[in-house]
TrEMBL record:
The chain crosses the membrane at residues 52-77, 97-116, 141-160, 172-195. Belongs to the TMEM192 family. Keywords: Membrane, Transmembrane, Transmembrane helix. It is found in: Membrane. It is a multi-pass membrane protein. This is Transmembrane protein 192. GO terms for cellular component: late endosome; lysosomal membrane.
Protein backbone atom coordinates (compact mmCIF):
# COMPACT_ATOMS: atom_id res chain seq x y z
CA UNK A 1 0.00 0.00 0.00
CA UNK A 2 2.81 2.40 0.88
CA UNK A 3 4.48 1.74 -2.43
CA UNK A 4 1.25 2.45 -4.30
CA UNK A 5 0.78 5.72 -2.43
CA UNK A 6 4.35 6.67 -3.23
CA UNK A 7 3.79 5.97 -6.94
CA UNK A 8 0.61 8.02 -6.93
CA UNK A 9 2.36 10.95 -5.28
CA UNK A 10 5.28 10.86 -7.69
CA UNK A 11 2.97 10.61 -10.69
CA UNK A 12 0.96 13.57 -9.42
CA UNK A 13 4.16 15.56 -9.02
CA UNK A 14 5.24 14.68 -12.55
CA UNK A 15 1.90 15.69 -14.00
CA UNK A 16 2.01 18.95 -12.05
CA UNK A 17 5.45 19.70 -13.42
CA UNK A 18 4.47 18.90 -17.03
CA UNK A 19 1.27 20.88 -16.71
CA UNK A 20 3.14 23.87 -15.34
CA UNK A 21 5.63 23.68 -18.22
CA UNK A 22 2.87 23.36 -20.83
CA UNK A 23 0.68 26.05 -19.31
CA UNK A 24 3.46 28.63 -18.94
CA UNK A 25 5.73 28.42 -22.00
CA UNK A 26 8.33 31.16 -22.35
CA UNK A 27 6.86 33.33 -19.59
CA UNK A 28 9.77 35.71 -19.61
CA UNK A 29 10.01 35.86 -23.42
CA UNK A 30 8.35 38.60 -25.47
CA UNK A 31 4.99 37.71 -26.95
CA UNK A 32 4.69 38.38 -30.67
CA UNK A 33 1.35 39.43 -32.04
CA UNK A 34 0.07 37.13 -34.76
CA UNK A 35 -0.93 39.98 -37.05
CA UNK A 36 2.50 41.56 -36.80
CA UNK A 37 4.21 38.27 -37.53
CA UNK A 38 2.02 37.47 -40.52
CA UNK A 39 2.52 40.94 -41.97
CA UNK A 40 6.28 40.59 -41.60
CA UNK A 41 6.40 37.11 -43.14
CA UNK A 42 4.03 37.79 -46.02
CA UNK A 43 5.81 38.75 -49.23
CA UNK A 44 4.51 40.75 -52.10
CA UNK A 45 4.44 38.99 -55.44
CA UNK A 46 7.32 40.06 -57.66
CA UNK A 47 6.61 40.08 -61.37
CA UNK A 48 9.10 38.89 -63.95
CA UNK A 49 10.20 41.64 -66.38
CA UNK A 50 11.70 39.22 -68.90
CA UNK A 51 8.60 39.06 -71.12
CA UNK A 52 9.32 42.62 -72.31
CA UNK A 53 12.87 41.58 -73.14
CA UNK A 54 11.53 38.73 -75.26
CA UNK A 55 9.20 41.08 -77.13
CA UNK A 56 11.99 43.64 -77.69
CA UNK A 57 14.32 40.93 -78.94
CA UNK A 58 11.65 39.72 -81.36
CA UNK A 59 11.21 43.23 -82.79
CA UNK A 60 14.97 43.64 -83.24
CA UNK A 61 15.21 40.26 -84.94
CA UNK A 62 12.43 41.16 -87.37
CA UNK A 63 14.19 44.45 -88.12
CA UNK A 64 17.46 42.60 -88.78
CA UNK A 65 15.83 40.19 -91.21
CA UNK A 66 14.13 43.10 -92.97
CA UNK A 67 17.50 44.81 -93.41
CA UNK A 68 19.00 41.60 -94.79
CA UNK A 69 16.16 41.14 -97.28
CA UNK A 70 16.44 44.79 -98.38
CA UNK A 71 20.21 44.51 -98.88
CA UNK A 72 19.80 41.26 -100.78
CA UNK A 73 17.15 42.75 -103.08
CA UNK A 74 18.99 46.02 -103.72
CA UNK A 75 22.68 45.13 -103.50
CA UNK A 76 23.19 41.40 -104.04
CA UNK A 77 20.64 40.15 -106.55
CA UNK A 78 20.94 43.12 -108.93
CA UNK A 79 23.95 45.05 -110.17
CA UNK A 80 22.09 48.28 -110.93
CA UNK A 81 22.19 49.66 -107.36
CA UNK A 82 25.59 48.33 -106.25
CA UNK A 83 27.26 51.76 -106.44
CA UNK A 84 24.36 53.36 -104.56
CA UNK A 85 24.55 50.68 -101.86
CA UNK A 86 28.26 51.23 -101.39
CA UNK A 87 27.74 54.99 -101.11
CA UNK A 88 24.86 54.59 -98.69
CA UNK A 89 26.92 52.27 -96.47
CA UNK A 90 29.96 54.60 -96.50
CA UNK A 91 32.12 52.07 -98.29
CA UNK A 92 31.26 49.17 -95.97
CA UNK A 93 30.66 45.86 -97.72
CA UNK A 94 27.00 44.85 -97.41
CA UNK A 95 27.80 41.24 -96.54
CA UNK A 96 30.21 42.35 -93.84
CA UNK A 97 27.48 44.57 -92.45
CA UNK A 98 25.08 41.63 -92.34
CA UNK A 99 27.64 39.55 -90.46
CA UNK A 100 28.36 42.35 -87.98
CA UNK A 101 24.67 42.84 -87.31
CA UNK A 102 24.31 39.09 -86.88
CA UNK A 103 27.04 39.06 -84.25
CA UNK A 104 25.44 42.02 -82.49
CA UNK A 105 22.08 40.25 -82.46
CA UNK A 106 23.68 37.13 -81.02
CA UNK A 107 25.24 39.21 -78.23
CA UNK A 108 21.83 40.64 -77.39
CA UNK A 109 20.36 37.15 -77.25
CA UNK A 110 23.21 36.04 -75.01
CA UNK A 111 22.63 38.96 -72.62
CA UNK A 112 18.90 38.19 -72.64
CA UNK A 113 19.59 34.56 -71.75
CA UNK A 114 21.83 35.62 -68.83
CA UNK A 115 19.16 38.05 -67.61
CA UNK A 116 16.49 35.35 -67.83
CA UNK A 117 18.69 32.91 -65.94
CA UNK A 118 19.21 35.45 -63.15
CA UNK A 119 15.50 36.21 -62.75
CA UNK A 120 14.48 32.56 -62.96
CA UNK A 121 17.00 31.63 -60.27
CA UNK A 122 15.40 34.29 -58.07
CA UNK A 123 11.96 32.82 -58.84
CA UNK A 124 13.26 29.40 -57.88
CA UNK A 125 14.55 30.71 -54.55
CA UNK A 126 11.14 32.27 -53.87
CA UNK A 127 9.51 28.84 -54.14
CA UNK A 128 8.00 28.86 -57.66
CA UNK A 129 9.49 25.50 -58.59
CA UNK A 130 6.82 24.48 -61.11
CA UNK A 131 7.26 27.59 -63.22
CA UNK A 132 11.04 27.24 -63.04
CA UNK A 133 10.90 23.68 -64.32
CA UNK A 134 8.27 24.51 -66.91
CA UNK A 135 10.52 27.11 -68.53
CA UNK A 136 13.86 25.41 -67.80
CA UNK A 137 14.45 24.29 -71.40
CA UNK A 138 12.46 27.02 -73.13
CA UNK A 139 14.61 29.86 -71.79
CA UNK A 140 17.76 28.39 -73.40
CA UNK A 141 16.24 27.73 -76.83
CA UNK A 142 16.65 31.24 -78.35
CA UNK A 143 20.40 31.23 -77.71
CA UNK A 144 20.75 27.74 -79.15
CA UNK A 145 18.75 28.73 -82.23
CA UNK A 146 20.87 31.83 -82.85
CA UNK A 147 24.10 29.90 -82.29
CA UNK A 148 23.00 27.27 -84.80
CA UNK A 149 21.99 30.06 -87.18
CA UNK A 150 25.45 31.63 -86.89
CA UNK A 151 27.07 28.31 -87.73
CA UNK A 152 24.77 27.86 -90.74
CA UNK A 153 25.53 31.40 -91.96
CA UNK A 154 29.27 30.74 -91.81
CA UNK A 155 28.81 27.45 -93.67
CA UNK A 156 26.96 29.30 -96.43
CA UNK A 157 29.28 32.33 -96.68
CA UNK A 158 32.58 30.41 -96.59
CA UNK A 159 32.08 28.65 -99.97
CA UNK A 160 29.97 31.51 -101.42
CA UNK A 161 32.10 31.94 -104.54
CA UNK A 162 32.01 28.22 -105.30
CA UNK A 163 28.25 28.08 -104.83
CA UNK A 164 27.68 31.14 -107.02
CA UNK A 165 29.81 29.60 -109.80
CA UNK A 166 27.48 26.61 -109.92
CA UNK A 167 24.21 28.52 -109.57
CA UNK A 168 24.01 32.30 -109.77
CA UNK A 169 23.31 33.94 -106.40
CA UNK A 170 22.87 30.53 -104.75
CA UNK A 171 24.71 31.69 -101.62
CA UNK A 172 22.36 34.68 -101.30
CA UNK A 173 19.26 32.51 -101.45
CA UNK A 174 20.72 30.02 -98.97
CA UNK A 175 21.68 32.87 -96.63
CA UNK A 176 18.18 34.34 -96.77
CA UNK A 177 16.68 30.89 -96.16
CA UNK A 178 18.84 30.35 -93.09
CA UNK A 179 18.00 33.80 -91.71
CA UNK A 180 14.26 33.36 -92.26
CA UNK A 181 14.17 29.88 -90.70
CA UNK A 182 16.13 31.20 -87.73
CA UNK A 183 13.66 34.09 -87.39
CA UNK A 184 10.65 31.75 -87.45
CA UNK A 185 12.07 29.38 -84.82
CA UNK A 186 13.28 32.20 -82.57
CA UNK A 187 10.01 34.15 -82.72
CA UNK A 188 7.99 31.05 -81.82
CA UNK A 189 10.17 30.31 -78.79
CA UNK A 190 10.23 33.93 -77.60
CA UNK A 191 6.48 34.39 -77.99
CA UNK A 192 5.71 31.15 -76.15
CA UNK A 193 8.06 32.25 -73.38
CA UNK A 194 6.54 35.74 -73.23
CA UNK A 195 3.01 34.27 -72.97
CA UNK A 196 4.02 31.96 -70.12
CA UNK A 197 5.72 34.78 -68.21
CA UNK A 198 2.74 37.09 -68.75
CA UNK A 199 0.40 34.38 -67.49
CA UNK A 200 2.63 33.84 -64.46
CA UNK A 201 2.63 37.57 -63.70
CA UNK A 202 -1.13 37.82 -64.16
CA UNK A 203 -1.92 34.94 -61.81
CA UNK A 204 0.26 36.40 -59.02
CA UNK A 205 0.19 33.16 -57.07
CA UNK A 206 2.08 32.39 -53.90
CA UNK A 207 4.92 29.86 -53.66
CA UNK A 208 4.08 26.33 -54.74
CA UNK A 209 4.00 24.89 -51.24
CA UNK A 210 1.63 27.65 -50.09
CA UNK A 211 -0.73 27.08 -53.02
CA UNK A 212 -0.66 23.32 -52.39
CA UNK A 213 -1.60 23.77 -48.75
CA UNK A 214 -4.38 26.18 -49.72
CA UNK A 215 -5.80 23.85 -52.37
CA UNK A 216 -5.71 20.86 -50.02
CA UNK A 217 -7.40 22.91 -47.31
CA UNK A 218 -10.29 23.89 -49.59
CA UNK A 219 -10.62 20.52 -51.31
CA UNK A 220 -10.38 18.47 -48.13
CA UNK A 221 -8.87 15.52 -49.99
CA UNK A 222 -5.41 14.07 -49.66
CA UNK A 223 -5.30 12.27 -53.00
CA UNK A 224 -2.82 14.72 -54.49
CA UNK A 225 -1.05 15.65 -51.26
CA UNK A 226 2.34 14.38 -52.34
CA UNK A 227 1.80 14.14 -56.09
CA UNK A 228 4.85 16.23 -56.90
CA UNK A 229 7.12 14.55 -54.37
CA UNK A 230 6.24 10.90 -54.81
CA UNK A 231 7.65 8.39 -57.26
CA UNK A 232 5.14 7.45 -59.93
CA UNK A 233 5.15 5.33 -63.04
CA UNK A 234 6.74 7.18 -65.93
CA UNK A 235 8.72 9.58 -63.72
CA UNK A 236 12.48 9.24 -63.45
CA UNK A 237 14.16 8.88 -60.10
CA UNK A 238 16.58 11.67 -60.99
CA UNK A 239 13.68 14.09 -61.58
CA UNK A 240 12.04 13.19 -58.27
CA UNK A 241 15.30 13.64 -56.35
CA UNK A 242 15.89 16.99 -58.04
CA UNK A 243 12.39 18.16 -57.11
CA UNK A 244 12.95 17.12 -53.51
CA UNK A 245 16.30 18.96 -53.43
CA UNK A 246 14.68 22.15 -54.76
CA UNK A 247 11.88 21.97 -52.21
CA UNK A 248 14.29 21.29 -49.32
CA UNK A 249 16.48 24.21 -50.39
CA UNK A 250 13.47 26.54 -50.50
CA UNK A 251 12.23 25.39 -47.09
CA UNK A 252 15.68 25.95 -45.58
CA UNK A 253 15.82 29.50 -46.94
CA UNK A 254 12.25 30.15 -45.82
CA UNK A 255 12.95 28.90 -42.29
CA UNK A 256 16.11 30.99 -42.07
CA UNK A 257 14.29 34.16 -43.11
CA UNK A 258 11.40 33.30 -40.80
CA UNK A 259 13.76 32.91 -37.82
CA UNK A 260 15.46 36.23 -38.58
CA UNK A 261 12.12 38.05 -38.77
CA UNK A 262 10.88 36.48 -35.53
CA UNK A 263 14.06 37.58 -33.76
CA UNK A 264 13.69 41.07 -35.21
CA UNK A 265 10.10 41.36 -34.04
CA UNK A 266 11.01 40.01 -30.61
CA UNK A 267 13.82 42.56 -30.30
CA UNK A 268 11.50 45.38 -31.34
CA UNK A 269 8.87 44.40 -28.81
CA UNK A 270 11.51 44.15 -26.07
CA UNK A 271 12.70 47.70 -26.84
CA UNK A 272 9.12 48.96 -26.90
CA UNK A 273 8.46 47.49 -23.45
CA UNK A 274 11.63 49.04 -22.06
Amino acid sequence: MDSKRLLVKTSNRNTDITQSIEDDPLIDGPLIARNALESAIKREFQKLPTNWGAITLTVLHVAYVSVCVALAALCWLTDTHSAECTAALNGVDSRSLVLLLKVGLWLLVFLFERCVQYHHSAVRRRGYLRFYRKTAKLKHLPLLIHSAGNAAVLIVIAPASMLDNKVKNLSVYLLLAVICVELLASVICLMVYAVQVSRFNKQSLGPDITEDERSHTFSGTDSDMHAEMGFRDGSSLEEVVEKQADLIEYLKQHNTQLSKRILTLATQQTHNRD
